[in-house]
């Protein structure tokens, strides 16, 4: 840390980066007062803020105390905010904040920037990868349908369901960014935040409380930086070995259908790692499509004999996965149990509070109550793990209403963004307590600061069964890259997408392109979508099935390679899907590539994300790259390769120690 | 004025209304700093503001000086703003502002309110009449196509042309409102403003400079209030007598077509007051439709012999009207003339600045230059009045770009909202100097503070040829009522609407309903729309023509009644179209009726504005009302009457001194 200051002016730099510049003409911190309205409709929020005050803290008195600095900011002589700056034992710059006047509930801080700087992260971002030039409201919510106000599907979703979303909507926001200057910056708050990267000289970070602290550290390389970040936020465990044996097929409809479909898939040569039956606890039909019965126990009518079949399948090498989320369906057994013990969030007056999930209503398990957590862990252990489930989708986490009351007394506005973390922790601990951390797969879409250490894997959320850039196949690539830089190294997506609404129906081509991409992600898993009958499915025809079979063979072929990457992720936080600049930091172009990625160190993947495209323009950073299908070697720059269905644009590094294995992809 | 104050607390009331309440905990004035971006695309603005400071001026020192008060506000002891409060000779409360620190460019003031209070005005508002519960950005612009983000046509207009607009978009904003507590409040500024009526205890008025003053006055009745308002802003002259002789037919295409159409209309029994040929100066074809050649002189090729025919028509009792706006088409004669004399707005460096009007580009005549005004008045007098035109559409006025440079040195951001006023003044003075104030009709859509004294009549702008509430037939009713309360007592609209885009085509039914309504407005005028071939026209079939003929006969029959109302408007600012509460202030329901109006004192008009409707539910304030068609008398409340095409829901007051005349409507 280097600090220079004189009267009313201070500059702080850390490891050679200027971090903070303040003087009375250009104050770096503002406090204010705002009155927000949160209008939630089924996980979609309309949030408005009436900011009545925004005060520049122009005056700053600096006191040095044995290597740390106490900055006292004021507006009019009356001290208003203390900022205490230290370098932590780990070598990070930490600036802690203390408001001296409790009336302020809005906070802005300007982190120094340069005009050409690029920034990434902010959780899982699906539209932008380099975030510079936009602001990013950070509030966990439904990700939006279409996510682009210029798209017709977004218009329909907005007008029918308030659900269209915009470029910044995400299940997983995090007030942390990574700069191409090889530093990360984290603001410790779970309040609503908005990171504004539109200014040339600074990044303005806003949050709706006084944050605990700002943490910043720089490294000499990006790999060192993600190691540092995951040292802070936690690291995911290694993927269970069985996940890499093939695809996890999303199947619904009961035991017989599941067994028949598994047999048919195997007969067609599909490598199957598991069956994921999200309706294992039964169904409920609504106008959105078939919805699940959110009372987390085996539905023995819909899945007769599953208690036995689940173990028979396991012996055949096929795992059975289910589904859970942090809500319990009104009037069902778990709801009643939770309610009777006071384990549900309530209204202010202690009365019943249920959340509308679209024609059905649920209680919110109050994870701020340790007993409620224990109880829910018990549900997971008894009803799911002991029953034989080897994994599940740990859905939702974004719907904590801001006007409910929680047992820890903290405002739900502040708890809202923390809920995914709490939800991940409950699941992780249930698994850990069952001694199954290395064998159970669970995947979440919601996230926030700290899920890295608890949420084992992410999936990209509910993409449209569509080609649209902001909410289709393409969007999961920046999603994987941004969340990977935050320390979530294992990411995947529903093969073929999920949301089947407003006329969108999954085509065969889309399914195939998505399957091809997902063979080069850490997990292959299919989903029927919310309206399965409208969608092309993996088994809709023999050609699709054969194509999938081949992709699962490639995936299984890559098992040792992915397994090693998963180990590296567990040990050093190195994401399995990586931006090109992770290993090619000298390459300027690499910083703007958002629809390609490195898969492990030595594979470069450029998914076809446009309908009808059979050639692919690919950017290769300077290296020796072998196109897996033609065997042709390229040395860098933009190249065009044939990429018909079945031959996704994939390259391996000639110098890879796994070159033989990677070359083998072409044998399928 | 009544002022009570002690340390840091002051309350000001005027004529029994509490106007201003301030104390250190609830400051009434805020100053701030903002950095706005104005992105204009063809008159549609995307405006964003980055407010870096908003400071509550908590401290207030009051000095009394012979009946006036000087309030000195400060944030931190350093005086920041002076507010000098006096009662003017006219008895109005006037609070003048003086910033003591030039750095502030954002201003907020809270005017005291009560929770149940209703407010109106803010210029010409097309979606809301009672403005309470919303905020109203006040910036002159295109009014928007559809004007409702939930409508598909708005979506199309937004995505194709950035033109969809929203509830507040208007050609004519004015920072003035009228309260149901019978006071008006005006903020003297032409900067961007935003009046926020969402708070229970106050109205928060924002503007993007330090306003000169706030002016407020109350009266015992609404008629006295509009008299007061128009005493302030000016009053329109009486309508030319000939306007009340019949319809002004919107015709295009040349002399022969015009003469033929006029003859055919007369043959069909249509009472014709004039022909309005907006293409008298020739045309230009673009993808939007046929656009006019903006070089304001007779096109003798398109309109051969018009120089003679115009006087022949006048002898037959038919006036000829043209078109002009404040822009001159690049590379044409007027442009060259203006440019050579320095009469056009320029870029900052003095170089050429043209505005994109949709595939053609124009210079902006610089009305801040008195010589440019004189020159443009000369163009109007010579090319239009002397040529024989008896009226015109004085189009536009909203497109002053914020980044152009003007001769008076004032920022175009500040001049933008003043431009319609300047444009009205140029036209008025040209007419006045020609001695034709009582004989020439010109109509504008743009407006702002002070146009009342210069713009003789308004038309409602470019409605969709459609039934939609926010931009169709219905929308011109609140437009007439709101602008009427601001002192613009003569309002009308294009019969059948104008904007023919995105699949909207004018139907026969819409045309007929609109014609029926406009027979009960001060001016009847038809428009072919921007794509005439897509629209049903007044002469598309014999039935339409006969229907129009009958409506023009009714209109002409009402001539003495309308003429008297026009006189009252000229003398006392009493609008011809009036909200029901104007004369029924005890009637609570009357304050929320936005799609009915009083036409003069004694007619109540409830236009059918829904497709297919043949019965009309009408609200009648307590009085004796005679339904013109059935002769049935009603005494008040909600009633339902038959309203087939040809029998619009119109009632006259039984006690009217014009009862015989009004009864005569039924004879047509």
Automatic annotation (TrEMBL), chains A, B:
One of its GO terms (molecular function) is carbohydrate binding. It comes from the Bacteria. The keyword Transferase does not apply. Residues 573-654 form the Glycosyl hydrolase family 31 C-terminal domain. The keyword RNA-binding does not apply. Residues 286-562 form the Glycoside hydrolase family 31 TIM barrel domain. GO terms for biological process: carbohydrate metabolic process. Keywords: Glycosidase, Hydrolase. InterPro entries: Gal_mutarotase_sf_dom, GH, Glyco_hydro_31_C, Glyco_hydro_31_TIM, Glyco_hydro_b, Sulfoquinovosidase_GH31, YihQ_TIM-like. Pfam families: Glyco_hydro_31_2nd, Glyco_hydro_31_3rd. This is Alpha-glucosidase.
